[in-house]
Amino acid sequence: MPRPLLLLAIAIVAAIVAWLGTALMRRIALRFNIADHPNERRINTRPVPRAGGLSIAVTFAVIGAAIVVLAPILHLPAGNGSARLKDAGVEALLLGTLIAGVIGFVDDRYDLRARWQILGQLLISLIPIAFGLRILFVSNPFGSGVLLFPDAVALGVTIFWTLGMQNSMNFIDGLDGLSGGISLIAAVTLGLIALPTSPLLAALCFTLAGALAGFLRHNVHPASIYMGTSGILAVAYALAVLAILGTAKVAAALLILGVPIIDAFFVILGRLLAGRSPYTPDKSHIHRRLLDSGFSHRSAVLVLYGITALLSVGALLLTESATLYAFAGLLVVLGVVAIYLSRKVAGSEG
């Protein structure tokens, strides 16, 4: 079977399994009242089950493990570009995603306090370290070559990257289908970047994309189930580790996921400047600004999908150094857009 068709088949199988698994999770969530109830800061006007993202984590881990075992038969080599995938990389990716999903499910079930949520995120951020994974270098934006990190710096950067990805995906998860769709686009793009040098890693990216697609069948507006903390933590972790393992590197992932990452940056900065905790809920997220400025639920989601798709094309075409410049430019542009939307909303309210 031609490799593109094989990747498509893998994604379809993962989508079917996740679709069925999400339906099962919905029944479980309803049975145990694991739901988001309406309040002043939520979009939903009725209780909606959550923890659907656990099906994504389980689907990705199980099918991913099967692909790794069958890789020689399927002619999916790890490739020279993903040497760490041959060592403990697979275990860090698949087992870590499953652990992240389970930790998130505990929060979905028991509505943990913020300090326990933060502790869970920190524990998840240590999983790549435990398996020996590090972000050892980044492309040099000021010249040729790369910038190598000392061991202590590499350790800190890896933790910061994984922790930051979790918070970015958590903050952007405010509209039906938004975080799942952005993650799906990112997974496909990372897979396309990895395909020439590591078909096995590409297959794992498409497995994640398929699992997200199956879940989204239940999550598009109006959603019948939410991803929940289980899905946010699992998907964020998977994307973070895929970027570490793959030829895409962190630079490309920064650009592809520029919308949630930069949104989290401005939200946290704004809360700190206002003297509030970074985790204090408010309506400063970019998707809330779009709604307040007149966009419909679906339109706001599609706008952010479109931006992510354009950034993904850029990540496919640009060099690593150029992606860093593009990310810096996006930071400025989204900052200007956020200011404009804030003033527009303030003007309409005045």
The gist of it:
By secondary structure, the chain is mainly α.
Description of the structure:
The chain is 73% helix and 3% strand. It has 350 residues and is mainly alpha-helical. It has a two-stranded antiparallel sheet with strand order 1-2. A two-stranded antiparallel sheet has the order 3-4. β3 (137-139) and β4 (146-148) form a beta hairpin. α1 packs parallel to α8 (199-219) and α7 packs parallel to α9 (228-245). The relative contact order is 0.15.
Features of this protein?
350 residues; mainly alpha; two-stranded antiparallel sheet; two-stranded antiparallel ribbon; 4 strands
Secondary structure layout plus pairing:
Elements: H1 3-31, E1 35-36, E2 48-49, H2 53-74, H3 83-110, H4 114-125, H5 127-130, E3 137-139, E4 146-148, H6 151-172, H7 178-194, H8 199-219, H9 228-245, H10 249-256, H11 258-273, H12 286-292, H13 297-317, H14 320-349
Antiparallel strand pairs: 1-2, 3-4
